[in-house]
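Sequence, please.
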């Protein structure tokens, strides 16, 4: 069931993302072919999770708002596609579950800023991504999504056919005890992938 739904999602993504958004991806070869890893991306739009899910060759687990799991049918669908609830009241529980997934060898998608950017710019990291990177020892793959904010920013009602580009960086492994500092290092790596930072 999971494999079939993932196949359908990939097929739909090929149509929507390539035709409607003229999606271009650089660096897809950086995704590890086996073992756990953390995809850490900037977050400006509801388009971000399906975009990352489409370009990554492996099925990713990812945090989703707990409110999305209130509707049984939709909850079943997104669970099959790798989502699990991010409990705001009990964030430690969600992090422990994410760590368990990584330690079992599964890849994880996380947005280090914790929520969508309201102005399209990178915000400071939450310490959760640093905790997961250090405690799991899994490589972190930084990803920068360019264009999703212009296509479908927070508060927008319509999705615009804006070209989207995604830049995937080299995997990096982190150590240390200051999870906030590690998280900020990851944010910096994401920012360095931005076409604007590269001139």
């Amino acid at each position: 069931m999971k494999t079939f739904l993932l196949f359908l999602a990939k097929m739909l993504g090929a149509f929507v993302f390539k035709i409607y958004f003229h999606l271009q991806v650089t660096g897809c070869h950086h995704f590890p072919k086996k073992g756990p890893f953390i995809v850490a991306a900037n977050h400006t739009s509801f388009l971000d999770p399906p975009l990352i899910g489409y370009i990554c060759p492996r099925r990713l687990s990812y945090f989703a708002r707990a409110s999305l799991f209130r509707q049984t049918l939709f909850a079943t669908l997104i669970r099959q596609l790798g989502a699990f609830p991010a409990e705001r009241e009990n964030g430690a529980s969600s992090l422990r579950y994410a760590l368990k997934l990584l330690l079992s060898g599964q890849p994880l998608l996380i947005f280090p800023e914790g929520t969508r950017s309201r102005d399209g710019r990178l915000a400071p990291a939450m310490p959760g991504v640093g905790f997961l990177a250090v405690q799991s020892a899994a490589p972190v793959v930084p990803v920068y999504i360019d264009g999703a904010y212009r296509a479908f920013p927070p508060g927008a009602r319509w999705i615009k056919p804006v070209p989207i580009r995604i830049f995937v960086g080299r995997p990096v492994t982190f150590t240390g005890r200051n999870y906030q500092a590690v998280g900020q290092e990851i944010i910096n790596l994401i920012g360095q992938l931005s076409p604007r930072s590269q001139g």
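The first helix runs from residue 2 to 20.
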